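#random but structural
TW: two for the price of one
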Amino acid sequence: MATQAVNQLLLTACVAELGTLRFTPAGLPALDLKLEHESTVIEAGKPRQVKAALKAVAFGAVAERLARQAMGSLWRFQGFLATPGTAKHPVLHVQDFQQD
């Protein structure tokens, strides 16, 4: 029995940088942003302080909604990871977000 691959990320993070709403050549709204996360997790039975920053992108209605949010605001983001073109690091493609 084959299993289906899953690429889904759920992350609580604040908006650290917010680009200007732009449009793709096809006319789709697009927004680049940077997210920052900070929490304590349990790893190998011990608490660990975790900080992470990652680039993200949103398209369509999600991009338009995100463009209206305040810098530093905290949200729960849902999406998937993809490494664009020749880049070395994955980017979170935000499919939805809601108040945390």
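TW: number two ↓
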Amino acid sequence: MLVLRVLRAGPLHGYAIAQKIHVLSNEVLEVEEGSLYPALQKILLKGWVSAEWGISETNRKVRFYKLTTAGRKQLEAELRDYDRVTEAIKAILRTA
């Protein structure tokens, strides 16, 4: 969900995705390469992102990932599920 949400703003390469998640989470969340790239491959195969090779700001050949229409729909579904689960947890914490 976080990868899809970060890509909603526009195409990014893997390292930039990890950095953006880290920065936007006030440096609380760190996405390790060992989990990021398999996740990117999985969502690429599901058609939620597309990818193309390009050159990074440091002049390296990198793969840029872009959210697809299917990815936008998936993100919206995941955000709805997240909100539903978050509200359920809050209800338990308030009443238990």
